[in-house]
Every structure is written in structure tokens, then in C-alpha cells.
Amino acid sequence: MKNNHFKCGVLALAMLGVSTSSLSADKTKMPGHSAHHNHIALFSGVTSSEHASDPTVGLEFERRLPFMYGMFGIGGFVERVISEHSQSLVGVSAIIHPWKNLKANFTIGAESADGHSETLHRVGLAYDFHIDQMSVSPTYNFDSVAGYTANVFGIAFGMGF
Question: Fewer CB within 10 Å: C terminus or N terminus of the chain?
């Protein structure tokens, strides 16, 4: 059961990507953003808590909404913190792009470890550097789970479509 949240998250991201890719074929240029409404990225970083700093890998997806110049998006992620007691995280995000390629995310999700799950709250910032349809994004997230907090630092390598 401990990997059920992780598997459901991967499935939800895949379904979100497939279902939203047909919503808009419009590739009009949005201020401060590439012409793609969908973005998928691989994340690599470190999760640092009061107890340890552990390698973290993940997958993220964002769908830019077709109003207000694409300033808002919805998305989700799955991550794996690789440690003695590995953790799987999955979440759904509301994303705002307030200025150029800067984005902030507000996420609710779940963290699973050792067969036990807790509610995850995450807020984060990233800045997308675009090269055609590819992106490189330094990323910071602050996680809160059951009264414990963690800082997640890393870089995401993505592609727009």
C-alpha cells in the first residue's frame, strides 16, 4: 500500500497531460513564457530537514490556463526522497506566473513512508530559463507534513508541448 499514492500520482499526471493537451491547439505567445501551454519536467535535488539531507527525484507537470495571458496554471508532481526510510510524495498544484519566467506554486498532496501517509502542504518558487521548447529551472519548495518541515532545493529539466 505504501506505493499506492505514488502510482496514483503518476497515473493522474499522465491523465492530466493527455486530457489537457487537446483543450487548446492555440500556440499564441504568452508574455514571459514560451508558446507551449503544457510543460513536463524531471526534477533532481535535495530534501533537507532537521534530521538529514537526502537526494530527491521527481516528475512535474503544468498546464497553463488560457486566460489572463497564461498567468495561471494547474499541475502536479510525484517525487521520491531516497533515504533509509524513503518517502513518496504526490501533489496537485495551483501555479501563478507573476513576472516573466518566475512561478510560484501552492500545493496540497500526500507523503507516504513506511506504509503510513500524511497530508503534504507545499509552497515553492522556480524560475524557468527557456531554450526553444526546453527549460532549465532552479527550484525551491518548502514542505510541511504533520508538523515537520523540509526545504527542497533542486533543478528541473523540462520540455513544453
Answer: N
